């Protein structure tokens, strides 16, 4: 948080993603990661880890939605599976790693949560609990649509422009 020189939650997220050997499940309503988190996710995926990211199809703010969506092409290109939850606004903030441990808390994967806000996060080192989190993720996928690289590349120029503009604002969101 703002009272520390350390970005503790960001470092926790980074270390968890970097430690994955098999699979990563991430759910977050707002996704405007810093370069470290983004590169950790892409590197894990390109290194053979099955990385799945669930976002909400709709957001409570347009600018946050366009900013979040601006990262989709980059992630898809790296092999990250991106799902959009279509049954309401999913406000969960969860990461599960290899069915061994999970991270649950109030922090979004955005600059404000990771560097500026006071947030709380629990790291739960319990395989049984992590599996339950993963099972819930897999259940929630049935309420999602999956972004496909080829389809995403064909989205409208207007949407691409909105995403590009919003991406410029991502450090503030």
Brief digest:
The protein is built from eight helices and nine strands.
Q: Which CATH class?
A: Alpha Beta
Low-pLDDT runs of 5+ residues are none
Name the helicity range: 40-55%
Structural class: alpha/beta
- Average pLDDT reading: 90
CATH fold name, please?
Answer: Endonuclease, Chain A
Could you walk me through the main structural features you see in this protein, from its secondary elements to its overall organization?
By secondary structure, this protein is an alpha/beta fold. It has one domain (8-172): Endonuclease Chain A (Endonuclease, Chain A), CATH 3.30.870.10. Helices cover 44% and strands 21% of the residues. The chain is built from 8 helices and 9 strands. It has helices at residues 8-19, 35-46, 62-69, 72-77, 111-116, 127-141, 149-153, 157-168; strands spanning 23-27, 31-32, 50-56, 81-85, 94-97, 101-105, 109-110, 121-124, 144-146. A 7-stranded mixed sheet has the order 8-6-5-1-3-4-9, sandwiched between helices. A hairpin with a 3-residue loop joins β5 and β6. The longest helix has 15 residues, at 127-141. The mean pLDDT is 90.
Structural descriptors:
173 residues, alpha/beta, Endonuclease, Chain A, seven-stranded mixed sheet, two-stranded parallel ribbon, 44% helix
């Amino acid at each position: 948080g703002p009272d520390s020189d350390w970005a503790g939650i960001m470092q926790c997220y980074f270390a968890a993603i970097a430690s994955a050997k098999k699979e990563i499940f991430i759910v977050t309503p707002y996704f405007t990661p810093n370069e470290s988190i983004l590169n950790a996710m892409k590197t894990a995926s390109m290194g053979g880890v099955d990385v799945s990211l669930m976002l909400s199809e709709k957001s409570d703010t347009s600018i946050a939605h366009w900013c979040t969506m601006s990262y989709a092409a980059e992630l898809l290109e790296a092999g990250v599976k991106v799902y959009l939850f279509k049954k309401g606004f999913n406000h969960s903030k969860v990461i599960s790693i290899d069915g061994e441990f999970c991270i649950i808390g109030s922090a979004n994967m955005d600059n404000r949560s990771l560097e500026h806000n006071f947030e709380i996060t629990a790291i739960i080192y319990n395989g049984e609990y992590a599996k339950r989190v993963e099972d819930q993720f897999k259940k929630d996928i049935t309420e999602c649509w999956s972004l496909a690289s080829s389809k995403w590349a064909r989205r409208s120029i207007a949407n691409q422009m909105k995403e590009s503009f919003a991406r410029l604002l991502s450090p503030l969101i």
